[in-house]
């Protein structure tokens, strides 16, 4: 029971992040599991098995609210499933000693990406409810995102969602909804790959069940959180946590001394604080500009949330 509760808390924390940012469930939960000493391949397999349930529920919810472009789901999700199966097969074949730094390196890079995305360069905004992108763009994106997601323990959202948002040609709600729906295919394919490569006996029901229970319980709380904490600030905070947890694994793998480890941590924390400060400054500036923007009749309007 204590083990189930611990992993439920991990799933709850990861779902809070994912529900508020539209990404990073896998990156957050896998980072926390590896930090807790779980085998990298087992951690990624457990997360993806739990995601089969959470992504199905998430995709259904987005479909109900009209946020899903099914052509985008298929063009992105099917290649993503192929990439996820290949990534799971690769990670399953690596030894624990080789897999830990490999996975942590990918997760750290994704943490840097999440940190910079929300603190420095917010995505463009469009209004189209269907994606104009064809298979030439979506298939390679899905293949790479799926491979990174399975082999690195997460990355489907951090890789595919920003790429589509940055193109500025589809409404954010459609992108988030379609990426969430297509993630079910990715999670299912990765789970099959891990079960073939690892066997079901290495998977702990407490880990998978805890992640799933925590994720389901966190869904309504995440919906509330996104209305209270600005995404740039939360994204910057989460990105720093991901970087710190995976830097620890990489430093241990490199047998870094105490002085080197302490120096790296100081640099990371300093840059993390600067990124959060930049996110807060950008948020205040945008709110001030919005509050000062005149309406059609010359009056000023207030920004929602001020």
TrEMBL record:
The keyword Transmembrane applies. It is found in: Cell membrane; Membrane. Its main location: membrane. InterPro entries: TM_pro_TauE-like, TSUP/Inactive_protease-like. The keyword Cell membrane applies. It is a multi-pass membrane protein. It holds the Pfam family TauE. Keywords: Cell membrane, Membrane, Transmembrane, Transmembrane helix. The chain crosses the membrane at residues 72-93, 99-116, 175-196, 208-226, 233-251, 257-280. Belongs to the 4-toluene sulfonate uptake permease (TSUP) (TC 2.A.102) family. This is Probable membrane transporter protein. It comes from Pseudonocardia tropica.
